[in-house]
Amino acid sequence: MKMISVCVKTCASLLLLFLLAPAAVVAEEVYQVGFAKVDITPDYPVRLNGFGFRREESEGVSQSVFARAMAISQTDAPPLVIVAVDSLGVRLPQVDRIAEQLKQSHGLPRENFALTFSHSHCAPKVNGASDNIFSQAIPPAHQKHLDTYSEEIIGLIVQAAAKAIDSRQPATLHRSTGTVGFAKNRRPMGGPTDHDLPTLIARDPNTQTVRGVYVSYACHCVTLRFNKISGDWAGYAAEGIERQFPDSIALVSIGAGSDQNPIDMSVDDVSIAQRQGAEIASEVKRLAETKALPISGPLSAQLQRIALPLNPLPSREQFAELAEKNSNVAVRYNATTQLAKLDRGESLLTEIDYPIQTFLFGDSLCMSFLAGEVCVDYSIRLKSEIDSKRYWLNTYSNDFCSYIPSERLVGEGGYGGGAEVPYFALPTTLAAGLEQRIVDEVHRQVPDEFVIPEGVQGVAPKSPKDALQSMRTHDDLEIELVAAEPLVRDPVAIDFGADGSLWVAQMSDYGRGVYEKFEHHGQVRRLSDTTGDGQFDKAVTFVDGLRFPTDVKVWRDGLLICDAPDILLARDTDGDGVADSVDKLFSGFEIVNAQARVNSLRWGIDNWIYGSCGLFGGKILSHKTGQTHNIVGRDFRMNPDTGEIQAVAGRTQQGRSQNDWGDWFGCTNSSLLLHYASDARYDSRNALVSLPTPAGLSGGAETRRLFPPEELVQFALSGASGNATAACGLDIYRDNQLGEEYLNNAFTCEPVNQLVHRSVLQPTGIDYQVSRGENETESEFLTSTDRWFRPVQARTGPDGSLWVVDMYRYVIEHSRWIPQATLAELDVYAGQSMGRIYRVRPKSNQPAAPASEASPAPFDLTGKSDLQLATLLKSSNGTVRDLAHQMLFWNSPSDSVADQLRAIVAEAPLAASRIHAIALLSAWQTLDAPTLLVALANTHDEVVRHGIHFAEPMLDDDAALRDAVIRHAAHASPRVRRQVAWSLGELQNAAAIPALTALASKSETDRYVRAAAISSLNPNNVSSMLAAYVALPTAQQQPESLQQILRTAIRLGDAEAIDGSASQVLPAIANEAASANRLLIELLDSADARIGNATIAWTPELKLTVQQAHRRAIETLDPTALALLGRYRGAATAQLLMSADEPSVGEELSIANVLDAISERVSARYAAPLQVAAINALAKTRHPDAAELMLERYREVSASAQTAILDNLIARNDWSLTLLDTIAEGDLRANILDADRRGKLLSHADETIRQRAKSALEMAGSPSRAAIIDTFQASLKLASDVDRGRAVFRKQCSACHRVEEHGFVVGPDLTALTNRDPQWMLSAILDPNREVDARYVSWSALSEDGRVVSGLVVEENAAMIRLRESGGKEHELLRDSIEQLRASDRSLMPEGLEKDMTPQDVSDLIAYVIHSIGTPAPMAADQPLPRQAHQIAPFLLDESQPIQRRQQAIDQRPGMGPAILNLLAVDLRADDLATQYKRIPWIWRVALAIGRRSDDGELRDALASSLPSSDQPLLDWQAVVIGGGLINGLTQIGQWPSDRIAAILDADPTLAPRWQQTLAMSAAMADDDAVKKGTRYDALRIVALDDPEKAIPHLKRYLGADVDGELQMGAVSGLADIDAPQIGALLIESLPGLTPRNRQLAIEGLLRTPNRRDALESAFAKNAKLLTAEEAKQLAQP
């Protein structure tokens, strides 16, 4: 590749080179590598080793055997030499002889030579190797041949090694690991296997020809058993590889395979061995054709011998007995040989001199060589402790001494576990402990960088170089390493400095609790290139001690830093490179979620800095202005200089970015991409109208699917791979360096899925169409198989590359969502000192430039003049343009620069450049009309759009400019037309009216443009707009627009002009069309709301028209007529319906007559829709008689009309009481109310209604939800019927759910459910409030007219909110008409469905729902452990489940504790102790688990759900949660509960008043004899956290010997939790009177601090009887 930086393209021939030359395109290291192959087949018969049954010398040669050698070196250093010999094994003295000869001939150090054996059982025996294999003496003739061969093989091996050393030539080395599956564990009891095939391939660096291969496989070489010489499968593998790669030499050796055999074996069927060899050769060929890891780095070797002790030797007598009496011939023969040694005066072996050797290839590969027949346990263990991707274990190396069992095999015994020692001529077995000795020495030789850290599940981190090799992108792109540890650590965000530096936010404390108190290590570092060679070589910590920094942004001479709850400005005022001034600019951003905090500060093209609210935002204090702004749940823009901050459209979690046109995009963890197509500045101008919110994005499900690598780090609560669960770090790529097809594409990081996802964006009017890249239909832009790869931010670099920030952590998910058992095995901070930054750039096809030519000029804008910066606005790179724009914004304008900017507006080839120039001129207040006219004449839609926006301040004063803008009302682009509609609303000049009128009419086809025109209505233009609109031909009038214009004219226009505005629509309301009534209703409603009690001099024509319309309505009584009549009459309506000249008019149109007329339609004689319309009309009059009229007609109308009556009655508080009174008096039955409506009344916000409902509906004494579920358990055992269930569903559920094209979409999509558990479904149906999904919480709104509506919030914007209730009915409310909006703590799904269904109905319904989901699940009790809170809560209460399984359900689902608690306690009441205490055992277990986990978020949420609300009593279950669960759990893990809870209260002050109230109530509960003693214990634990001056005397009262044991325990445990000096003496004094269990607790409390321990030791020294012997031992322990 061409080793130069990519230049940032500009006009005016300015060449801007970026700071970084490629650092991560790893050059393949070239070694000197030689291979040799020497035939070691004897030409005479010889005894073959391996099988003891052989008695004769070999009977020919089936396959020649060889010594194959490989020598690898660098420069003139001695090589590393490996020889693989086709032999069962060679002894250490012989290997030493070989090494010594090579030292003499080639200067080869001993440690640089390794000999490995293929362990073929058909190869000639060598002296010393398993000398007792035949269990009899070898005949002298046979021994003579063995002696000859044993000498010959030494020379032949030396020859092979020497040839390899002498034949070294340049070569590259690559390592990969394949899989071969023909081995099995051969032990009788079975065991593990290792099917890895580590492979090293040497290639010619120029031709890429394979010159040699080295492989090893963990399997005994015993496929063949005949008496012919053969290399067995290993020999055939070598032959096969050499055939695959002509002129290559293949070395094959054995891994840890002493207990592994081939699955297929034979006496003489050579084809089996050939097939096995071919399997290896085929896998090697596959590996050679795939990308492998390059080997690089310096070579080194170590060799150490350790002693492996044998067990105590048998005595001579024991040997004699074994030789004479043992039934095993091998044992007898071995004993005989040992006795012979003793007879010769020789000492028997007491230990094995065991060689362990290591070859190192830099940090890219580590090879260990172990002697003997090593079992597979060693391989599995070492590869779990050492990075298996870079570690290679060779066994059967350097000495064929014995079997090397693991401790497991030593314990199991048998062959391979000790029974084989006779064959090796050993006097006894190896002593226990050998495994650890061997492993310790291996670890001593292996460098630390290869060792896998603890707590990462055996997955080792990779070096930056190796991590890079794990990454994949498109073939025409390459990935380069920009920076890595130690320059950066824990990077989460970057920004590009004007001087070429890189600013990095480092969140080192990620994983800590959000409320946890700890020393903060978060930093901002500045990376720089001090040598000018294009490489970052210096890192300076600019700011230290940050908590969780999430972003950085260069600003003037300082740096903006996001560190919730603050945005900081850090400056270096003394020039030492370290910030000495750190000021808070804004405070108040939410901190509740570690993964959702303020972030993404980005320069906007409109001269503001934009930011992400992190989902939550907050009430933000500007320290400069002293003002607090409501930015809750909305993104923002700010001006750091002035302290201004404003809410903007969008709600981003982590990653907000703009494209070249100033369109903003964001993401959330579960949404890869969002587009914020509206503009809050305009949308909020007219609060009287409801504006549609653009969809923003469109695209199929395939655009949201992810294609991650196969292996991910996932836990029980992790989302499914392939779905976005951690989307973050969004960037819009703003350059064409990667290719034109990437320009303005979105790139979203997904660290859990180890990828960066690309979204192609195509504008479609106001919105964008999303698609996948053509080359990414089933792949991703960037992925990595490195399971530590955690991309968290993407940025367009000033060099045109896409920069990717890799936090590089093993655990990226917050600990709250990891099961406790798993968490205990994890290091959640693994990788804390690591981190990488990469960039993706085009691959160069040119050769690398010489180093002297490849060093680019540093990227440095600090010395640029304003004219030069202005030129940079023409760069194709959006980051460069933004930075130049920013720097010019900071500077004072000059005429010459302003002129250059005007020239850019006129002439720049890039539209984006023109927009930047316009924005800067506007910021400098030097933007003039001629420049804007040039922009408005541009052919690019976006230049025109922004020109219109920036022209707004001049439009009133400049007619030419105004006319130019107005002409664009007919522009082809709806984006331009929408901007015209928005901007014309800023005018005071009436010239805008015709264009606005047209844009609001039917001639405008885009609804969003029409909405923009309506948003422009204001008191200054609305009257004129109304006049112009009604002057349009009727066919051009859009009825909805006309109504909105009329509403605004009356509500916002001058009071004196109300009659005039109303009169303008006289022709439209005078006809008999339905639209006339709708417009009249708008007129009257608006007039009533506008004038209050004022009297208006209405024109006679208007009064007559209104009266005639009402007369027609009384006559026709069609739906629109009913809507007109059925209105609440305000002052305006009353005045218009009265006539001073004709008093009869008032009587004729009186409300009484109208009620009578409407009531006539409330009859079964009319169609149901008309009945409903009449009922709604009655209700809207708000007349006191309307409720009685509806109730009187209830039995006379259709079912849908009855439903309308009930809904209207329930919608008003006074009418709800009337309805309940009617039911209580028996005039109507309670069962007319279905579960939904009962629920609304029983959970009503008004206490009087709730109590009346309980009484009238006989619910006060109703069974709890748990009891109801118990009652319906039998339904799960009934035979169910899907067809019957369908009927039940359509009757009971279709009002809120749609299945099989039947019903309404209000609640969740049941067909998308993944949980088919019938038990869960039963709970969900009968106890819907057990867990309330926030998406389906019921909201209740009280409108200014006294109407109450409720439902789900399905849409909201700055002006309106839309609620949807059951039946799909929707209510759209303008925000300024809402008196109160209240979220229920209950689901929209009602309780009480059991009143309308039998157990058989429920059984059938569940069967139908499961059928609708897919394959039915059996209704068996034996289900897997539940995974979600709504499943776990009922599972815990299921007494048929074993306690252990229920506890497992709690332990395996961390983070869900508070949700489970909420579900267990949702319906518990103070007067229902029986239900409380039925659930308390499991409430306690859940709370205890939360306490033991000590997660900030869980603790906070648990406190929030269990602390009594203001003025509410402390219930028993709440005391159990707080005292027996949270406090107790914190104590059990050694924390001080007072400190932990104080930290939570500090972070969330809203809990503090409830906590203080709880402390006071717990003191009373602890002393209340009516409370159960166990709960009083819990209360005492709470008391302990009060002020010690209050708590200690209180608890002390319960220490007496006559106090109940449980209460005494509460006092002891509580006192132990108080970190006060007097506690030690108090506990010591109480010891004699405590129960045994409480004594133990007291002593544990005394040993909790050094001071208490000292006090106890002192007291014990004075009184030896104070402690028992066991207690004294406990004290003596350190």
UniProtKB/TrEMBL annotation:
Keywords assigned: Heme, Iron, Metal-binding, Signal
Signal peptide: 1-27
Pfam families, per the entry: Ceramidase_alk, Cytochrom_C, DUF7133, HEAT_2
GO molecular-function terms, A-Z: electron transfer activity; heme binding; metal ion binding
Top-level division of the source organism's lineage: Bacteria
Cytochrome c domain residues: 1280-1413
Entries under InterPro entries matching the protein: 6-blade_b-propeller_TolB-like, ARM-like, ARM-type_fold, Cyt_c-like_dom, Cyt_c-like_dom_sf, DUF7133, Haem-bd_dom_put, Membrane-bound_put_N
NCBIfam families attached to this UniProt entry: CxxCH_TIGR02603, Piru_Ver_Nterm
Listed name of the protein: Neutral/alkaline non-lysosomal ceramidase
Species name: Rosistilla ulvae
